[in-house]
Amino acid sequence: LYELLEQGQEDENLRPNAVTFRHVIYSFRRRYKQPGVAYKVEKLLELQRATLRRPDNRNYDAALQVVSKSYDPNKVNICARLLVEMKDGPTLVPSLASYNAVLNACAHPISSDGAKEVMAVAIELLNELREDSSLGGPNFISYAYFLTCCANLLPAGPKRDAIVQNVFGKCCQDGQVGKFVLMELLDAASEELTSKLLGGDPDDGVKIPRSWSRNIKDARQLLH
User: Fold this and answer.
1) How far apart are CA 179 and CA 114, in angstroms?
2) CA nearest neighbour of 150 among 162, 133, 132, 135
């Protein structure tokens, strides 16, 4: 990439474009466990801004996907920072996928340090999705990741159950209850709450109303 940048100074046909940067960013997907991946991806976006002077939505989403799955202990802060840049940038518009990537980072922290702060980020993200109609509202992925946040960031007990019950109720209202959501619900909710929400013991087989999943477009997530 740096060689292309140097060559591009002499020949515009060799100058890297947004697609070039995106391919380099995606090349880190197979190396997401390596140290420094999140830092390198963020620096690639900085380099793109410095050379092309025009940020690219798809490159930011690519960066969010890679960083959210990395093993960087600071990945939540980096993802949140990139999302803010998208919201503040005059030519950038974050999508539902952008928000879901940050929620994914929150849901899978590398350590338990700062769990309270990470949970606060997840709550803010879900609230923004529900309040901003331009994003279309949270989907089953958003709700599933949030329930994973509850399971991984909050200690088991009445407070966690209260949050899970509230969010699952909104998920039902939005018609976004699918297999992914139910799988994460089982991890996040107590057995008593799970039985209350689903109307019985999942091991005995339960049948949820079709209205709970009416807005899911991915047929693989449907329970009927």
Assistant:
1) 30
2) 162
Determine the Cα–Cα distance for residues 211 and 190; give it in Å rounded to an integer: 24
Which residue is listed with tokens 């009927």?
Answer: 224
pLDDT digits (tens, 9 = 90+) for 2-23: 444 444 444 455 566 777 778 7
Query: Which of 152, 176, 180, 147 is CA-nearest to residue 164?
Result: 147
Quick check: 111 pLDDT over 50? yes
Q: Is 162 exposed, middle or buried (0-12, 13-18, 19+ CB in 10 A)?
A: exposed
For the record, the structure tokens of 39 come out as 């830092």
Q: For residue 55, give the H/E element and its range.
A: none
Which of 67, 83, 1 lies closest to 29 in space, CA to CA? 67
Residue 108 · residue 114 · CB < 8 Å:
no
Among residues 145, 166, 49, 47, the alpha carbon closest in space to that of 103 is found at 145
Residue in the structure block whose two tokens are 């690219």: 56
Q: CA 206, CA 224: separation in Å to the nearest integer?
A: 11
Report in angstroms the alpha-carbon separations of 162 from 36, 165, 170, 185, 210. 37, 5, 13, 13, 24
Distance, CA of 181 to CA of 201 (rounded, Å): 16
145-156 pLDDT, tens digit per residue, is 999 999 999 999
